[in-house]
């Protein structure tokens, strides 16, 4: 993890010291389960809990000799124990501890990410309500299409975040599993009841069938959901970037006092936060590919996935946590220029109401082809000469023959584009009062 893109709460979850504490939690839970089953004296388990001490530096020294991190871990623990040390790692193999402890770390990381998602959704709901009827141009193919409201644009993001939360809950639950099934998953040296007891103590579920390692399709599914959430953030960030362009300038990221936009051009206010999010989304999608390639292991297990996961799981969770926090701040403090939005709507001289004129003519009984061709001729004339489309429509003899002046006026009514905003909000679950 790069310090620049990790918050302290997530950094602590993936720290070496916390990882070892989770390993110890699994080891102690296993000893307690053996004691519950009558195999280990409870007094020895109590001594283990009282005396087992983690020494990160000492473990590193042992690992330099053994070249095996779990062996180094158990030997480091043993140095702080008495005769009860014989029960450490009893019946277990390395991945029993590593995968189950990693599930605890992911569970903690997922708690942070879920809160991040809910916070961003709440911010977007608040801003959608604030700008429910704030008009701006809707654009298709990058070209002005028809007016809409900023609130409706944000409601679409809220809807996607609702789906993100549902998907995230599914994969979080899938990953809340442990396994203590032995070398090739047969429970030959540790019965299923021990696994069940350990998982109960740790707040996990036993994975039904394993091969010493948890199935990596679980992690691939998880990374695919993280990548999809990151891609959604990229979508929103790309919209902010587009709307902050000088030629449009309808919204802008917050710009702090003393902030600099360019080392060369003092006037620059750049959407650096949204650009940052766009770049990091690409990284997480790359991690998704790695997670998919980690699924296929040789026979019952190998460790080709291990080195990759030491990078992609901490990084992906840390990056998404960072991205959600950063984009939430952008949206919470978003600068909205309502006058510029209205100016951009009016800049076309009414061209963006061409469909309403078309439909009004069709309502009089004209064929769609005749109505369309005539309106298009007026639109092309407006675009080629710079004349007002609205004025051309108002003065046109053909239009006057078919439409009353009040019908023409209604065709250019901006408010018709927000007449169903409350219904849209209700569909998403955004309060409309």
TrEMBL record:
Reaction catalysis annotation: N(6)-(1,2-dicarboxyethyl)-AMP = fumarate + AMP; (2S)-2-[5-amino-1-(5-phospho-beta-D-ribosyl)imidazole-4-carboxamido]succinate = 5-amino-1-(5-phospho-beta-D-ribosyl)imidazole-4-carboxamide + fumarate
SUPFAM superfamilies, per the entry: L-aspartase-like (SSF48557)
Keywords: Lyase, Purine biosynthesis
UniProt entry tagged with the keyword Lyase: yes
GO molecular function, one term: lyase activity
Superkingdom of this protein's organism: Bacteria
Pathway as given in its UniProt record: Purine metabolism; AMP biosynthesis via de novo pathway; AMP from IMP: step 2/2; Purine metabolism; IMP biosynthesis via de novo pathway; 5-amino-1-(5-phospho-D-ribosyl)imidazole-4-carboxamide from 5-amino-1-(5-phospho-D-ribosyl)imidazole-4-carboxylate: step 2/2
Keyword Lyase annotated: yes
Adenylosuccinate lyase C-terminal domain residues: 349-429
EC number from the UniProt entry: 4.3.2.2
Record-linked InterPro entries: AdenyloSucc_lyase_C (IPR019468), Fumarase/histidase_N (IPR024083), Fumarate_lyase_CS (IPR020557), Fumarate_lyase_fam (IPR000362), Fumarate_lyase_N (IPR022761), L-Aspartase-like (IPR008948), Pur_lyase (IPR004769)
EC supergroup of this enzyme: lyase
Pfam families: ADSL_C, Lyase_1
Similarity comment: family membership: Belongs to the lyase 1 family. Adenylosuccinate lyase subfamily.
UniProt protein name: Adenylosuccinate lyase
Organism: Furfurilactobacillus curtus
This protein's encoding gene: purB
């Amino acid at each position: 993890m790069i310090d620049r893109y990790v918050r302290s709460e997530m950094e602590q979850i993936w720290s070496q010291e916390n990882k070892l504490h989770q390993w110890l939690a699994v080891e102690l839970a296993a000893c307690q389960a053996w004691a519950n089953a009558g195999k280990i004296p409870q007094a020895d388990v109590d001594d283990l809990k009282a005396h087992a001490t983690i020494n990160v530096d000492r473990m590193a020294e042992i690992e330099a000799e053994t070249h095996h991190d779990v062996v180094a871990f158990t030997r480091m623990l043993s140095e702080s124990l008495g005769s009860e040390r014989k029960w450490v790692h009893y019946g277990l193999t390395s991945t029993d501890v590593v995968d189950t402890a990693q599930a605890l770390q992911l569970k903690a990381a997922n708690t942070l990410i879920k809160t991040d998602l809910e916070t961003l959704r709440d911010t977007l709901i608040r801003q959608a309500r604030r700008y429910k009827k704030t008009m701006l141009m809707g654009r298709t193919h990058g070209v002005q299409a028809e007016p809409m409201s900023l609130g409706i644009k944000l409601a679409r993001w809220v809807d996607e975040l609702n789906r993100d939360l549902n998907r995230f809950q599914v994969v979080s639950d899938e990953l809340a599993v442990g396994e203590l099934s032995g070398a090739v998953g047969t429970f030959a040296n540790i019965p299923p009841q021990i696994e069940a007891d350990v998982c109960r103590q740790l707040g996990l579920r036993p994975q039904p069938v394993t091969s010493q390692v948890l199935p990596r399709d679980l992690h691939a599914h998880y990374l695919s959901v993280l990548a999809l959430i990151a891609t959604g953030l990229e979508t929103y960030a790309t919209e902010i970037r587009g709307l902050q362009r000088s030629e449009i300038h309808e919204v802008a990221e917050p710009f702090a006092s003393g902030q600099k936009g360019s080392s060369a051009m003092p006037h620059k206010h750049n959407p650096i936060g949204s650009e940052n999010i766009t770049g990091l989304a690409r990284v997480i999608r790359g991690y998704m590919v790695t997670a998919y390639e980690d699924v296929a292991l040789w026979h019952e297990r190998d460790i080709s996935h291990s080195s990759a996961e030491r990078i992609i799981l901490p990084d992906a969770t840390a990056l998404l946590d960072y991205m959600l926090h950063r984009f939430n701040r952008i949206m919470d403090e978003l600068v909205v220029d309502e006058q510029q939005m209205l100016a951009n709507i009016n800049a076309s001289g009414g061209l963006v109401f061409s469909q309403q004129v078309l439909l009004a003519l069709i309502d009089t009984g004209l064929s769609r082809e005749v109505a369309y061709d005539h309106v298009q001729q007026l639109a092309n004339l407006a675009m080629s000469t710079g004349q007002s489309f609205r004025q051309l429509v108002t003065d046109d003899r053909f239009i006057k023959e078919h439409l009353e002046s009040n019908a023409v006026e209604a065709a250019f009514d901006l408010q018709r584009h927000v007449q169903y905003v409350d219904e849209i909000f209700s569909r998403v679950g955004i309060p409309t009062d």
